[in-house]
Write a structure and sequence with these properties.
heterodimer; A: about 375 residues; mainly alpha; 2 strands; B: alpha/beta; Rossmann fold; Ubiquitin-like (UB roll); Fumarate Reductase Iron-sulfur Protein, Chain B, domain 2; 5-stranded mixed beta sheet; 15 helices; elongated
Chain lengths: ~375, ~400
Amino acid sequence: MNKPDLNSAPVTSAPYTHEKTSISRTMLLVMLALLPATVFGIYQFGLPALFIFVLTIAACIVFEAVCLVIAGKPVRPYLLDGSAVLTGWLLAMTLPPWSPWWLAAVGAFLAIVVGKQVFGGIGQNLFNPAMVARVALLIAFPLEMTSWVQPQPMFSSGAPGFLDALAVTFGGHVPPAFDAVSSATILGYVKTELGQGVALHDVLADNYDVLGLATGSVAGSLGETSAMLILIGGLFLLYKGIITWHIPLSMMFTLALLAGIFHLVSPERYPDAMFHLMSGATLLGAFFIATDLVTSPVTTRGQLVFGAGCGALVFVIRTWTGYPEGVAFAVMLMNAMTPLIDHYMKPRIYGRTRKGEPIQYKDEAEVVE
Amino acid sequence: MTSGRNSRKPADPMSLAPETIADQVAAAGIVGMGGATFPSAIKLNLGKRFKLHTLVINAAECEPYLTCDDRLMREHSDGIIDGVALMMQALQVNTAIIAIEANKPEACDAMAKASAAFDGITVMSVPVHYPMGSEKHLVQTLTGKETPARALTADIGIVVHNVATANAVHNAIRFGKPLISRVVTVSGGAIASPGNIHTLIGTPVSELLSFCGGYVEEPARLIGGGPMMGQPLPETRVPIVKGSGGILALTDREIASREAMPCIRCGSCVRACPCGLLPLEMASRARVGDFEAAVSFGLMDCIACGSCSYVCPSHIPLVQYFSHAKGALTEKQRKQHKQEETRRLAVARTERMEALKKAKREAMEKRKKEMAAKKAAEKAAEEAKRSQAGA
């Protein structure tokens, strides 16, 4: 069949003007929105966190470049679109800050090669690449992926020095001096204690610190710690029009609603809505992960369904499965639903009913003929 | 209504029969001057086929750069209003709404002042929101009514005419002046002194450009019409036509064109589409040649406004895909039509030949019979003669 290649044909069709926008601009704005939480997270967890952050992104760039060369695509424009950097950045935000170097490298491979390039590169992947990597790592390396530390702010007395930090990231062991800092996230801790039959009231008594969750002085990944800074970044994206309110709001609303109902029914077994919203990766997921452009529905109605599904799954996974945190699983499951949602949630065409028939007026303006 | 309409003086155009107005408009060669150039007389006769109640004058002028309607309204408001009154008479409606985008306050004021004496004519300011000039969207903004798909606004009792057309109607009916000139916006970053020029139809674009001081830099694109829906002009030795609202010489910066990247499914096009379509899905189907699937996502409801291409962060030329798909579908339909016609003609020919043969056969048999009858009669006559002679 004689098929003209429209992509390489010179544009001879209107419009002859364009909004000042591009993929790289979109990606840069998302990174800018992540910057405050990232900088603060690196400050909180010290040099090892910085090493992991840089390593993950660098590895993503390398894997992306290799794949582009193998696929015979132009390397420069695709690397400069910033998508690989952003994937690495998001992955780094979800790794334990004191992870060993190979965890970052394997994660980058899983994200870029398995999660994105085998599907055909940018725009073609079904699942959020960073979440593919995170989930695969969590299943393959459960110990490393749940080794959290208490914040050891840079320049504080408890912070590891340069050599200690190198040992943490590249040496494969945490120096004995820092053994005491290992810790569980609040979600993990609550899950364990509830599993042993301790009442929620006693579990949370001196561990639940809303202010700590908001500012980020708790154990967790870079993206899980400061709820407030993540929220500011999310609001910035909304303001810039990169994302719309539909997914974040419906996700948080559904999660809060389910948590609120169960908490009302049995306050000793189910934490309240605030706990769910402020802990773990809820906010990072709602504003930065679930809203991933490629893997979320394109219509506003579809996005509402998608967000609600994510919120409900996060609650279900956190509450009734073996995993304390469920954002990555929830988003991936809903990613799989996206084509279906897009199929059913089409917008109404102008002049037609939802079924596609031309709209009809009953009594007005009959044809005279 | 107007004092003129009730007047009994035969020379008063306001007492002309609707058909006469339409006929004179046709004779003056007036077409829709917003760019579609549909014969205005046909639209002025719609009252015969539809029950109409409102005339909408499209003065939204929603495309960037174009200001020819704005200037016309500021300088010829009385003529335009007179034209509107004549069109109301032709359509036999008592209400007219003149829709002007809110970013043209001077035009709004001038038109409001000129229409103050006419109760049926109101001037309405509409939001500055592309594509406000799309007639179905404009009618919805003004009246809240949505025109059904595949139907005309006349189906809901409304006829839309362009504001410059109203001025042309005024000139034709009042002064017998045919449509031989129009206001053209000459603009764009490459033009030395941009402006609105009252131009004779047929003036070469090159002459218009040099009248505006020529280029300050080599333009990246020369466009006839607006930047959103205009047509590229391959060269300047082409004439101004009745639908030329603008000649734009745009620089590289203004075009902001880039290499197309893959679609990232951001949904910007879906949010931008004024018709509720899924441009990204239509484009991906059109790209692989599956035009029927593109139709199932609404290809035929696309008004080619260009909003989707304008916002696409991947700079995908979506409208180009759609034009290509629409063209391919039309070609296919035409081929199919031709095939059906050929088959129909072939069948008809065979039938005709059969009928001819049959008629021939029948005629021959008839002649044979006749001959036989004649012979028999002759024989009988001869025998009768012989027997007579014998007797």
